[in-house]
Amino acid sequence: MKEKYMNVYVLSVTLLIWIGTGCDNNNQQQIVISPPISQQQSTQEKVKADQLESSALTMEHIWHLREQKKHEEVIEKTEKFLKAKKRNEDTYGTCMFLVADSHRQLGHFEQAKTLFVKVIRDYPYAKWADPNYGDIPVKPQCDVGLQLVAERDRSDFPENSGDYITLAWKYIDKQRFGRAILMTEACISRFQGEARKQQAAHENKYEGRPPKLSPKPEENKEILRQFWALYDVGTCYFILGQAYERQGDLAAKRGITLEAGKFYDKAIKCYDEIINKYPGAQCFDPDGPWYWSVKQGAEDHNIVIKLHKRR
After folding, report:
1. What are phi and psi of 136, to 5 degrees?
2. Is the model's pLDDT at 129 over the cut of 70?
3. Residues in a beta bridge with 290
4. What is the pLDDT of residue 87?
5. Rounded Cα gap, residues 218 and 214, in angstroms
6. In the chain, is it the N or the C terminus that has fewer CB atoms within a 10 Å radius of its CB?
7. pLDDT (tens digit, 9 = 90+) per residue, 25-61?
8. pLDDT at residue 258 in the model
């Protein structure tokens, strides 16, 4: 009897040890499956940090990164900015333009081209609000971007009116008239509102008699500060007229009279725009050096076209 109880006791102890070991193994398996608490906290903190960064991102911050030429960051931050919450058409169009142009300046030309085309197709009426110049249409800027992509050009995007004029004259000299037209139209669409205001101020100040400017631009700083948009937009319309007039000349040489006439009509329209809306504009010729009246130049070319070129 004693041995029997002993056997039962041993069997019971063995069974308890086996059950305890099984429970321990189950607990160990659960620990392996679940990530450590510190890892869970780290993941949660990262998600919260990403959410906070997205909500803190602003268009001003992205533009600032662009000015600093931090193009990888522009791409990264803009994508986070767009994911943060629902955005309107203007914001999407502007953001995609910024990403596209960052890719261009990094040399990712195919990616840039795809994005520029997408903005033109999907957001043709998008604008960004410039604190200095009012609403700026995105599409003309994308057109400029595509031309720079075609040139495999990684240089800075033209930001001020003078940059557009430099590119436009360069393309005129190379007889790449389509690209010259795009540069001038982009400049006009961006700065014409300010140019009109400056023309009104110019008329009040000078009563239709433009000031005589020094052949040294540095001596005209104050006048140029007041009327830079007027001078540059007027110059852009003149370059635009030149692009059409020279295309008319080429068509006339080939004997395509009807086509030549259409180009000349467009040129006259551009020159008339200067005469009627921007008569105070002046343009600097570094070969002179001197400033010349854009209105006078427009009037002279209109006379030549009407008397000698149009038939």
Report:
1. -115, 120
2. yes
3. 285
4. 85
5. 9
6. N
7. 444 444 334 445 555 555 555 444 444 444 468 888 9
8. 93
Among residues 80, 71, 129, 128, the alpha carbon closest in space to that of 100 is found at 71
Q: DSSP string of 105-146? A: HTT-HHHHHHHHHHHHHH-TT-EEEETTTEEEEHHHHHHHHH
> CA–CA separation, 250 vs 1, rounded Å?
126
More confident residue, 47 or 120: 120
Q: What is the DSSP letter of 284?
A: E
Per-residue confidence (pLDDT) for residue 38, from 0 to 100: 55
Write down all domains in the chain, each with its CATH number in brackets.
56-157 (1.25.40), 192-311 (no CATH)
Residue 209: what pLDDT?
Answer: 83
Residue with the two structure tokens 């003309």: 140
DSSP string, 152-198: T--SPPP-SHHHHHHHHHHHHHTT-HHHHHHHHHHHHHHHHHHHHHH
What does each C-alpha distance from 74 to 9, 89, 118 come to in angstroms?
A: 75, 19, 18
Q: Measure Cα distances from 8 to 11, 17, 22 in Å.
A: 5, 14, 21
Could you tell me what percentage of the chain is helix, strand and coil, using 3-state DSSP and rounding each to the nearest 5? 75, 5, 20
Residue 248, both tokens: 């008319």
Using CA atoms, how far residue 272 sits from 2, 195, 219, 239, 262, in Å, is: 125, 16, 30, 13, 15
Residue 235 to residue 97: CA distance in whole angstroms: 26
> What pLDDT shows up at residue 84?
82
**How buried is residue 243: exposed, middle or buried, by Cβ count under 10 Å (0-12/13-18/19+)?**
buried
Q: Is the pLDDT of residue 150 over 60?
A: yes
